[in-house]
User: What shape does this take?
Amino acid sequence: MKTLSGIIKAPTPHWVGNGFPVRSLFSYHDQAARMSPFLLLDHAGPMRFPADGMKRGVGEHPHRGFETVTIVYQGEVEHRDSTGQGGVIGPGDVQWMTAGAGILHEEFHSSAFSRSGGDLQMVQLWVNLPRQDKMTRPGYQAITSADIPEVVLDNNAGTLRPIAGSFDGQPGPANTFSPMQIWDLKLNAGGQARFDLPEGWTTAVVILEGEVSVNGSDPVGDGNMALLSRRDTGVRLQAAQNSLVLLLSGEPINEPVVGHGPFVMNTRQEILQAFEDLQRGTFGSL
Assistant: This one.
């Protein structure tokens, strides 16, 4: 079994734009090597928004050198980017955006959600790109809930949806540049599940709702994350109550990480080049 490296406690929430109250469970600024290939994880909500029709979210901004993965659990998010892609994603849907050489995009609550109001809960995960792929052509994968297989776990433990990677012979729909597993789990109260993940990979268990013991740990509450060692393979989850869990596992990218805000590259010079290219308009336009 993998040993528990530590529990990352839910930090104080902060606002991203005026639409996403997030807790950043980790960031490349101080945990790049430890969490590779993952760069950042923001857990937004759950929060209830009024039915006032107000436009809430984050306006036009750039990215380069990595991918953003947005998973919606409650509410609706509308996306638009400089490749001409966009759309609305709701509960169970995922948008996987490859910034690559450079992209501009915006993210807002959908118009329908703004009018109706309600609860919003989502996760945005930043995934690093290997050096050879950092300047790849920008792209967008719109993944609906129907695209993601749902596997029933043994002994009525719950269900698992592989977004990336695979589980029990069921491949997830996301195309990735490096090997990883991103699994969306719903565990029933009292449910127990055991998984084997590749030795040497980064592995983290994010508790979005509920309370879960990870490899025999004390229960880990919602908004917290359990980080496991890269040695060994076994991961055992036991839910004390109905729980929503995001399991992340990926092969580390053993390359330098130099980031500044929305740009994550390998060198300081590449960051400066990104700002220059943005000013020259090479990221396109919305």
Observations:
- Residues 268-280 form the longest helix (13 residues).
- The helical segments are 28-35, 111-116, 268-280.
- The first strand starts at residue 4 and ends at 8.
- The chain has a mean pLDDT of 97.
